[in-house]
Amino acid sequence: MSKFKTKEAFFIALGGQAPFVSFFIFGGYVNSLLGSSSALATFIAGLLIFVNGLVTNELSKRFPYYGGYYAYSYFTLSSSLSFTTFWTFLLFNVTYALAYLYGTAYMLTTYLFHNDLIAFIFSLAAIMILYSSGRKPTATYAIIAGSLELAIMVFLGLYLLYLSSFNFLNPFEIKGDLSRGILFAAGIPTGYIVLSSIAEEVEDSRKVIGKMMLIVIVIGTLLSAFDLYALSALNVAVIDALLLGLGIFVFPIVLFTAVNDGFLGVMAYLVSTTGLLKSLRYGFGDFLKGKAGFFSFFIYLIIPILLFYMVGNNFALFEACGYLSLLANFFLNAMAAAALLRIGISRLIRKRAWIYQLTISIFSLISNVIIVILNIQSGEPLLVYFFMGWLIIGFVISSIIEVVREIQEEAKKQ
Predict the structure, then answer these.
(1) Domain boundaries, the chain
(2) pTM, whole model, 2 decimals?
(3) What percent of the chain has pLDDT over 90?
């Protein structure tokens, strides 16, 4: 099986980030919360995510394996914490992908189908057909769609500024819940994580993975912050801004790119989940017997249908899945920071301390924990209970696994 080259790895990471559709769904939500300060929230979130990327860069050089954060915690932290990381990573992958799915369906409902069910069915069917086409077509599709979206994001920012007659506002005038705004703004440059899950499928992964992730974080943050600043100058919702002046020829191209970007984002997380399931061989053996791709496909087919059947509203599902995925993301980054901190402390004990590793891991650990706590306090109780319940279930399962292993070891000694 051929491995992904550097260019393909970059566009897979970009696809996981899906900056164009992230600007629509995550950025649009942030703009509704904060207005002119949405660009500031996006920039702050981008800085936090960049530090998290620096942590992941260090870890990916040492552990270029399937599973990303699960592999990092497995080789550095306790087995119970590593399973909790796997459990949370699974939640992140699924909910973040579903945020893209429902967000894209919401755009299609608004502009094209005017029916939540039809938009949802169309989106899910298109994604599954594209994913079923195989690895290489998916990578090629990522390159084409990614290149187009970068160009359109630059154009869109300039065009929105033009529509506002270059009305420059003060981005430091905070008008809403900044912590919640930062949480959702972090959804824009977050998708780089998918690349860490498939490290074994990338050529020269020790050098390529971290570098591509950092580049994607910077590009996604700057373009989205620029577009959101331009949008705030118009003082209209992102949905209305596109209809305001793009015209009959430009608007379909922008909509097509946004929808394709959403599809690409979901496919990237399908690939990421497959890599995560493959990583269970660390500590659990190959009990999936090469069926990780099938299980991923099944998960992303059944869960979206069940959730839509229960709720029936694409935007409400986007908001719920987006909130859960971003809480899980910051929790994962705290675990990654703890893994790097463990490595840094070990080097310190051996008097070979790398101050850089210690610094970024401590900053990342503290900032991610603070953001998780702040957003748990301000979140919808039902979603907070679900997230906390998910973590508790993960700890319970890990405890059961530990007990079983201890019994097996005692049996071997006898």
Answers:
(1) 6-327
(2) 0.86
(3) 8
